[in-house]
Amino acid sequence: MDAVAPVIKSLLTGDNGLSFGRLTLNVPKTLNALTLEMVGIIREALDRWENDPGVVGVLIDGVGEKGFCAGGDVQALYRSAIERPGGPCEYAERFFADEYRMNYRLHTYAKPIVCWGHGIVMGGGLGIFAGCSHRVVTESTRFAMPEVTIALFPDVGGSYFLNRMPGHSGRFLALTAANFNATDGMDTGYGTVLLADAAHQSLLTGLQAQSWKGQPDENEQLLLALLSRLAAEHSCVAPAGNISRHSALIESLCSGTTAEVYQKIADLDPQDKWLSKARDGLLRGSPLAVLWIDRQLQSARELSLADALRSELLLATNVVRHPEFAEGVRALLVDKDRNPQWTYRAIEQVPTELVDQFFSAPWGSNPLSDLG
């Protein structure tokens, strides 16, 4: 085991020789932000373990108290974008394609995958989490898809899984970059079990101590029993949720065209801190990105996961080639002046034909054409 590797691969092996594979994101100084190298390590391990009869499942977790994963390494994407304005942006475009293949692999994996989603779980981290079959949330979990603030969009399958959240909650979260916690995660189906942060070591011990069987169905039942036991032994006080509490308002706000939804959220004058932050997230974001985010969500509503990921790669490729993305990252993460000079100051100023261009294929064949 290489303790300095960006993703640590190990096996939790029991007395009978059967193991749970473990992938630990190991770059805590960047909150385990995903790089092309990390995606490659994860994909290789998943492929190998799926075909290994001695491995019955996989655990994915992250080093550091602050969180599981804050998303992709956006500064690496930024460097790729500014090196060749207008594209092709080789690193960024390869990263998106490889990351989306990894996301598809997680969603369709033949063996159970447990993800320990403590602390910050955002962007690409949420993409990993959402793809796993058994998703652990804790009292510290903080989810978000904050892409509107850097002129990107909720990708990594976001246009698939956000559309499957209750009502219009996915649309609200995508447009506002609002955080949501463990209770919200359980209420919306993101989380499958709530455990205390302190239960992490007990989970590792339990996975290693379990006498796994040769049949997947039997192992599924054993895993569910283990998680249920840990939930009883390591219960925690769940934070108050926000999405269910404001569900009626969210439905009202997010019914209508993009322009109507934008204006209704912008006009909010709430006393509630969570709603205020959500409104401010929308208003700080790129007006151009608001339009491509909402169009992507609406166009992907009936798509399969594979088709949604293909459509996301098309949009991501066009977005990273456009200067709006680089400006968003510059303002938030590079110069950190938090004063992005967006191309347009309001969504009504954005020409429809410009938005259309982001949904026009930038290549002859989609690199994910073989997916699914």
Describe what you observe in this structure.
- The chain contains 16 helices and ten strands.
- The chain has helices at residues 36-50, 74-83, 90-107, 124-131, 158-161, 169-176, 182-188, 200-209, 216-233, 247-253, 258-266, 273-284, 287-299, 305-320, 323-334, 352-357; strands at 7-13, 19-25, 55-62, 67-69, 113-117, 120-122, 134-137, 142-144, 180-181, 193-194.
- A six-stranded mixed β-sheet has the order 1-2-3-5-7-10, sandwiched between helices. Strands 4-6-8-9 form a four-stranded mixed β-sheet.
- It has a single domain (7-357), classed as 2-enoyl-CoA Hydratase, Chain A, domain 1.
- The radius of gyration is 20 Å and the shape is globular.
- Helix 2 (74-83) packs antiparallel against helix 3 (90-107).
- The chain has 372 residues and is α/β, with parallel strands linked by helices.
